[in-house]
Design goal:
The complex is a heterodimer of chains A (306) and B (278). Chain A is built from 13 helices and eight strands. With 306 residues, chain A is an alpha/beta fold. Chain A has one domain: Alpha-Beta Barrel (TIM Barrel). Chain A is globular and about 55 Å long. Chain B is α/β, with parallel strands linked by helices and 278 residues long. In chain B, the strands form three sheets. In chain B, strands 7-6-5-8-9 form a five-stranded parallel sheet, with helices on both faces. The longest helix of chain B has 20 residues. Classes of the chains: A alpha/beta (306), B alpha/beta (278).
Chain lengths: 306, 278
């Protein structure tokens, strides 16, 4: 396969770098204390809603569940038209056609996980086939998991190659590469995996599948955002960031927004560049918006659970 | 050599812990003569929010405990208050004067004993088999309302708050209590009894602070199912009831001494129809 200069492991070596563990955790903790109040908070809550990939990735998912979720994605609060739609719904490949039909006519995109989600333990040809099928069914975005096993065994080239192939299969479709930071164990490896994914053509890098613990943490987000920043300095290309897994409260969502803003700047405060993969977070955002506008703490029973 | 005095910091009781206010504020509590007694925490709206979250989380388990078990826990509170009687008495005496303080402790402890006995009798008294014109059993069962906000009366400082908490707990509710504003310290001493009496964390949450600041927050809160306005000033009752109407809260007021009616006021009723089979 012909590799352009932008698509090579050499780029990863050139950017390189390692992560100061204590420094990263300290900075993430310091940024998480920033106080966002009043109008800024409302703005951040609204942005967080617009950045959500409303997700259901369970064995028990049914077409009905996906349709319900899609209608919630389009109009999160049926009683309040001022609440914007979320960015996308995220489902398993089998349910892409259902989701696509359900969001028709709205701005909500359909994201499909692929390549043997969540483990990534799938043969190379089947990985590509799964991406092709999801796209054929109408997926606008692909959430692709890397083979962490290969990476941990030291085969970085394998990861690089599989992302190149995935991007080829995607064409213009947005490719998000899940590095599953929680399984990589060290921040150095998280940075390394991020750089490999970006060098191989990822449009977005994503923290976690949400299926393991720790999923998304503030330091992971910081380390990956710094990798994106360094990659942009080197190549000029802006790569997006998606955080997913365990983000349930508005407070957490705002903390991620602060880290992204402080590390990458406000170009990334946009659903095209930053996403939050979540399900229960949306209700908390709606309740916080209600509270912020009226001064009255909201009743959770007013919001649908699915 | 004289020893440095170890003075107590009065804190909130929230989710089974004793935190300071998230706001870091405090206010001065005065002796009956009007001189300084101690600093108490001045809780903020966020403390109210946190208390409601804790109560909501704790409520299902408390409600699903058997009535017999709830009775045991209420009795255990009485036991813990009895062992801490000197401390409770000195707090009450410091707040309202020595006169009548012993009597007040008796009343408070006896109130818990009384409701401990009622716990496993409540559903027989409040529920029952209703006569209906048809081949059906028609059953009425009392169920706890859920999370109850309690505005404790200003005085008596201890017996007053106990008279409102005990009937609410009896039926399986979780409570967020705003203590007497003028005499909050006996409520915190009570919290220390609750914490050692097998009351699950979050079932009772006690906040101290300014009522004019906290009552509207509690009364309007969408996740609070009922509010006891016994300790709300007459001039503020109308506004409190209007705020409570936002999510159709049950509004409750003390009737008097311990009775099933007091506990039933904190309950809702579920009616079930069941066909009579042969």
């Amino acid at each position: 396969m012909a590799m352009t200069e932008a698509l090579s492991m050499e780029l990863v070596e050139r950017i390189g770098g390692s992560v100061d563990k204590v420094g990263a955790e300290e900075r993430a903790a310091a940024l998480s204390k920033r106080s966002i109040k009043k109008d800024s908070k409302l703005w951040a809550l609204d942005l967080a809603v617009r950045c959500i990939d409303l997700t259901t990735l369970e064995g028990q998912d049914t077409p009905g569940k996906v349709r319900q979720m899609a209608s919630k994605a389009i109009r999160p609060d049926p009683g309040d038209p001022t609440i914007p739609s979320v960015a996308a719904v995220c489902v398993y490949p089998r349910l892409v056609s259902v989701a696509k039909e359900a969001v028709k006519g709205s701005s909500v995109k359909v994201a499909s996980v692929a390549t043997g989600f969540p483990s990534g333990q799938m043969a190379a040809d089947l990985r590509v086939e799964e991406i092709r099928r999801a796209i054929a069914d109408g997926a606008d975005e692909i959430d692709n998991v890397i083979s962490r096993g290969a990476l941990l065994a030291g085969d970085e080239q394998a990861i690089f190659d599989e992302v190149v192939v995935a991007k080829e299969a995607c064409g213009d479709v947005h490719l998000k590469v899940i590095i599953e930071a929680g399984e990589l164990a060290t921040y150095d490896r998280v940075r390394r995996a991020s750089l490999i994914a970006m060098a191989a053509g990822a449009d977005v890098i994503k923290t976690s599948t949400g299926k393991i613990s720790p999923a998304s943490t503030l330091p992971f987000c910081l380390v990956m955002a710094e990798a994106i920043r360094d990659f942009q300095h080197e190549t000029g290309r802006k790569v997006g960031l998606k955080v997913a897994g365990g983000i349930r409260s508005s407070k957490d969502a705002i903390r991620y927004l602060v880290i992204v803003n402080e590390t990458l700047g406000d170009d990334w405060l946009d659903p095209d560049m930053f996403r939050i993969g979540a399900s229960s977070l949306l209700n908390d955002l709606l309740m916080q918006i209600h509270k912020q506008r009226t001064g009255i703490y909201a009743d959770p029973d007013r919001y649908t659970q699915d | 050599m004289s020893r440095v005095e170890v003075r107590k910091t009065y804190k909130l009781y929230l989710g089974g812990d004793f935190p300071r206010s998230e706001s870091g504020r405090s206010y001065e509590v005065l002796k009956p003569q009007g001189t300084f007694l101690a600093n108490a925490v001045r809780a903020s709206r966020k403390d109210v929010r946190d208390a409601v979250v804790a109560a909501r989380k704790a409520q299902p388990n408390w409600a699903s405990a058997t009535a017999y078990n709830r009775g045991q826990v209420l009795y255990r509170i009485a036991e813990m208050m009895e062992t801490r009687r000197p401390e409770l008495a000195s707090e009450v005496a410091a707040a309202e004067g020595k006169r009548g303080s012993d009597k007040q402790i008796d009343t408070a402890i006896d109130t818990f004993v009384w409701y401990a006995g009622l716990a496993d009798k409540l559903s027989q008294i409040a529920g029952g088999l209703n006569p209906v014109a048809g081949p059906y059993f028609n059953l009425t069962v009392p169920e706890p309302t859920g999370v109850v906000g309690i505005v404790a009366p200003e005085s008596p400082s201890l017996a007053g708050v106990v008279a409102r908490i005990a009937p609410a707990l009896c039926g399986g509710n979780a409570t967020v209590v705003l203590a007497s504003e003028a005499h909050p310290l006996p409520s915190i001493a009570l919290a220390e009894c609750l914490a050692t009496a097998d009351v699950p964390g979050g079932v009772v949450n006690i906040l101290t602070g300014h009522k004019d600041e906290l009552v509207p927050i509690l009364a309007s809160h969408g996740d609070v199912d009922a509010i006891d306005i016994t300790g709300v000033e007459d001039s503020a009752i109308a506004d409190t009831e209007i705020a409570a109407a936002g999510n159709i809260k049950r509004v409750i007021r003390a009737e008097g001494s311990p009775s099933p009616t007091e506990a039933i006021a904190f309950m809702e009723f579920k009616t079930v129809w069941h066909p009579k089979g042969t």
